Amino acid sequence: MSAVFDDSSARPGPSGLDPAPPAGPAVVGEGASTTPQEDRVHRLLGGLKRKYGARITGELAMPAQAARFAELPEGLHPRLRAALAARGLTRLYAHQREAWERVQAGEHLVVATPTASGKTLCYNLPVLDAVLSRQAKALYLFPTKALAQDQVAELSELNQALAGMERAAQQSGGISPSGSGSQSIARSDARSDDGGGQRRKGGGGAGFDSDTDSDPDPDPDFDLDSDRCRQGDCVTRRGSLGIKAFTFDGDTPGDARKAVRTRGDIVLSNPDMLHQAILPHHTKWAQFFESLQFVVVDELHGYRGVFGSHVANVFRRLLRICRFYGAKPVFIFASATIANPAELAGRLIGERVHAVTDSGAPRGERQLLLWNPLVIDPDLGIRASARSQTTRIARAATRQGLKNIVFARSRLMVEVITKYLKDVFDRDPRRPPRVLAYRGGYLPSERRSGERALRAGRVDCVVSTSALELGVDIGALDVAVLNGYPGTIAATWQRLGRAGRRNRPSLGVLVATSDPLDQYMVRHPEFFLGSSPEHARIHPDQLLILMDHVRCAAFELPFRDGEGFGDCTEDLGEMLGYLRDEGLLQRQGPQWFWVADSYPANAVSLRSVAEGNFVVIDTTDGKQTIIAEVDYSGAPGTVYEGAIYMVQSQPYQVEKLDWTGRKAYVTKTRADYYTDAIDYTKLKILAEFDRRGMVAGQRGAAADRRHFDTDTDTDTDPGSDSDSETGSGAEATAAVAHGEVHLVRRYPGYKKIRYYSHDNIGYGNIDLPDQEMHTTAVWWQLHPRVLAQAVAATFGSRERLVEGFLGAAYALHHVAALRAMAEVQDLGRAVGDGQGRWFATVGADGRGQLRGPDNQPLDEPPAGGFEPTLFLYDNYPGGVGLSAPLFDAAAVLVADALALVRDCACTGGCPACVGPILPGDEQRVLPPNALALSVLALFAGGAAGDHGDGAGSEALVAAGSSPQRRSDA
Amino acid sequence: MSSLRERLRRVRGEAAPGAGAPTEASRTRPSLTERLKRLGAARANAPEPDPEPAPASARPPTAAATPDRAHDEAALAAALGAERLAPGVLRVTHSRPLALAHGRCALHPDPAAVTLLQPDAPADPAGWVALDTETSGLAGGTGTWVFVVGLARWRTDRLELVQYLLTRLDAEADLLAQLNTDLAAAELLLSYNGKTFDVPLLAARLRLARLADTASDLLHLDLLHPVRRAFAGVWPDCRLASVERFLLGHERADDLPGAEAPAAWLDWLRRGDGRRLGAVLAHNRVDLLSVAALPARLAAAHRTPAAHGGDVLRIARWWLAAGDSAGARQLLAAAPALDAPARHLLARLHLRAGDWRAAVSLWEPLAADGDAGALEALAKHYEHRAKDPRRALAYARALPAGPDTEHRCRRLMDKALGNLGPHPDLIE
């Protein structure tokens, strides 16, 4: 972002950087001479289509889009205008101007435009103007420390842009000498994080060419403490905008913090610091809060689920504090494309937020292919692996000189694909590597050096998890290959957007795996290409999260009777009473005062519910070197003893796991296999919130209505117009309920899988404590009489019935993920009796098995009744509100699952409908898909003829093995 | 409210969750408490338990657990010998003759001592205020209360101790306003660790009460810093109790440990039990007396550190930093035994004063022990000042091997052999 003006003006073709803007909208890109890059992208595209036409199920070509410009606002502070001009920016994109107008009108705003469309300037422009013209202060929040440090570097450059010009013009007086403090702090942060390299996020504004990266400016030797800054520095800094932008994070040295609090015009931080360090000490920030006029929240789309729910509560606290200081800041959000940016932002702050979504930035031509590997075995529905196709496309792109990125859905898959590509391109260890793996779990320094290598163009192919979805600047790429559907449409576009910048054509390929959701997507390209991205959802009133923040809020300022907590719907008085009974609060008059000797924010992590990351320690050669970190929830499935753990595709074997010390000791290995943990889950129902009987007839024309007595009809909500539930007096074959469950996940062992052939070459045991969780779930059960009759008449045995449940669970899980607009891993599934006495799993023989509480095989279910229950649970402690909507949509889900299984092209069941099956199963009298269909038909109220309209799916796995699908960046 | 309690009782009466069949499970939405309790079991960050947990089921909700009712403040005031300034604010005043010893020390104001430690301090003790607080904890942040503010001021023949005790949370603004009044005439604060603890906390409380922050901008002599300078390397720790034991000669008897002060206050807030508050105030008064007595002893330790067991080197450096190198030199010279770094410093000071003989006499025994710094200093001395390259060479040869040493030796060799042409290194 810096010093790019000269470079880019020398480029062929018009760009936003042209010093003299054409009158009216300009067409960008069309006049550009065809670059070699463009040829290569088209050549690759043509080659793929020629050779592999049968695998391409969908194609989308998006023509280059012209830029729409707008003038800089009249009222813009002249010095800001001059600073922008110094960087070659003399006009805006249309959406940047729109954002400006809305902010001037005092509206909260969310800018949701594509990658590299200049979102940053949408907030920087009004903020910098307000800082210059009325000493406003602004708080910028980024989800990570690194992104905040990127941004301060960019601000500093803008800040200094004027300096050179004004010095050249021999102007010296009149401008306050400052900026050195901010510089020094920003630099010190950068230094501690990555050794001083500056990262720049692309897409600053119409005039900023993000394709160009430049070396960091040589930095004068700044004194850390700005109060002690030397006069010489101040003199050299004269002429800058004089805006002090400071990062404030865990790396900010203690002696610099006071300067940040009292002198910062713009403080760049993250929600965790706001939560743990700023709000609980708000009196130290009094000056800052008194003048706080803007809160900028970038990467809004990341504020979903647990994290988003926490942050919504942090904002409730922030707004309380702002009210105390008489401030009413305007919020400006920036987001990648999601369906509901305004709604999400509005939920986060409990106020109306306006969306700016119509980007005026130009885009290069974009090509998208949907790619389905060929069917190898039609009986089993087995296709060639997505991994092989992905590596093939990445190889072709790399060979043609196209920079490319491969997105994989798990850290493990990142390592496997990286290894395969390195085996081709990085065989000579004396040469710098052309292939790079990038994922969460690597140390920050390693990630930073990877980012630098990418920006500098030293890497031809990067393989990443969702970690690179974020706005980390990695420069421009030509091709994006997605190994598997990322789970949401929003994430898909976000990843595809990594390829293609302003004036270049780009290619994206979505390679389907055999997971149901992937198959649904590639077989129904119109679903993907025509649908809007998902809604990002949060659940700020999730009880545990809410209580955590009410506790923190009570610490920060006493609550008064009658006061609310944002738009929280729980009874605040009841919560405060609870905290008083815990000894934390004391009520006096109308106020609730904090009296405990504790600092509650320290006990609350915004990111996860369980604490304590594991470090992976390499003990090869007798030394101890930390090579990676694994988060708590991922640890049992990745660093168990015997596991092969890979870093940059170098395999390490876990020798010892210190569970309490959160350490995994590994050594380098040359194993020719990788490992995959097996897990199983048992569930116990704690409380049932609601229940409905399912009766056929209301929806399906061919309802095979059977009448059974039911004890559930009294619970039916008579006012509900849901599709197929009991009217009063009607009789149900099945019931659906939702409520709270206790869940135990156990990892009994792991599989060893050979590279390339992917044969399973052995098993190992895992000895780890159970992972426990309370959460919410929706579950289905059959009426006992229906059950008995079905076992006798349809299934023939309980084992077959249980297999039917498992297949139905597989299908329901995936359609539920689609309907709930959640990612598949946000939900879990299980089949058991609901009391933890037995659960069902698919055994190695492919048959449904009953297992006891300790995973021992059971021949018979324990005495006391056989009540198989199918669970879909919210995969977060306490739940994040996923199961209640599933309960409401239960009838639709069952219909969708029926359609998914029935419409599948396989003969007896396959990973795209009911899960993998064994050879020969399709020849059984009742193949797995028929068993699942029968169960689903019973769930639908006995009606078997319901064809729901589509239901994609996806696959986490049968209740058996979990291939580390958390793309935990 | 009643439903919450009812639901609470139900959950407590229940067996292990999920013992019943799902159809028997509760059909209604459980209470907040019940929901939290279940979820909390799976959480690492369960709320910290009350140090003295009052089982909610064991007491009716409006009884002692609910301290909305006013406690008997008048009785407490009487027991503490306090006057009630406002509802919720008690003031306890003590007066102590200056000649009455605190440990080995009297309490007379010592302007020379104070201005030694804080050069810009006013010499008139009328403007001095010693400050010490008791707080609801050490966690910091806006949730930490200051419930006792103790001030000590010098009057003509006595030290006046005034303590404010907060007995109602909603009376904090009254207490703080009173404090601001008292500090209005103050020119210097004296404290022990007040700069980082007491004053920032008071500043937070004042800000919360929307009152002016009188404390933060006052000139402040935090005695912890000179204590650390003089004794950090000598004593096991620098807690005030250690200061009293080693420097003031005072042993506390029947002292309420500071850590118990928050609980004593919570006893009062929650149950109206103020029995331990008297001990808290007594503890606070001892703190104030120690702060009041400390400057004189500390100044003495800075003048003659050796006599007080202080860290001679660090104190000498402090004198030096204050611009008094003669003072630093005298102080080092007067010390009976010096370690190597101190001897180096003294030698440097001798040199600066032109007394190179004294410097050499310090270096020589060090050099005899192989001290590289002394060897190098002597090599330089004999080369440049005494013009005796042979002796210089003897010292230089004992220096640790390395390119510098080699270079130096070669140069000295040249000089010793009489090749006394202008050597480039001499110019540097």
Automatic annotation (TrEMBL), chain B:
<dbReference type="InterPro" id="IPR011990">
    <property type="entry name" value="TPR-like_helical_dom_sf"/>
</dbReference>
<feature type="compositionally biased region" description="Low complexity">
    <location>
        <begin position="14"/>
        <end position="25"/>
    </location>
</feature>
<feature type="compositionally biased region" description="Low complexity">
    <location>
        <begin position="55"/>
        <end position="67"/>
    </location>
</feature>
<dbReference type="InterPro" id="IPR038720">
    <property type="entry name" value="YprB_RNase_H-like_dom"/>
</dbReference>
<protein>
    <recommendedName>
        <fullName>YprB ribonuclease H-like domain-containing protein</fullName>
    </recommendedName>
</protein>
<feature type="region of interest" description="Disordered">
    <location>
        <begin position="1"/>
        <end position="70"/>
    </location>
</feature>
<dbReference type="InterPro" id="IPR012337">
    <property type="entry name" value="RNaseH-like_sf"/>
</dbReference>
<dbReference type="Pfam" id="PF13482">
    <property type="entry name" value="RNase_H_2"/>
</dbReference>
<feature type="domain" description="YprB ribonuclease H-like">
    <location>
        <begin position="131"/>
        <end position="295"/>
    </location>
</feature>
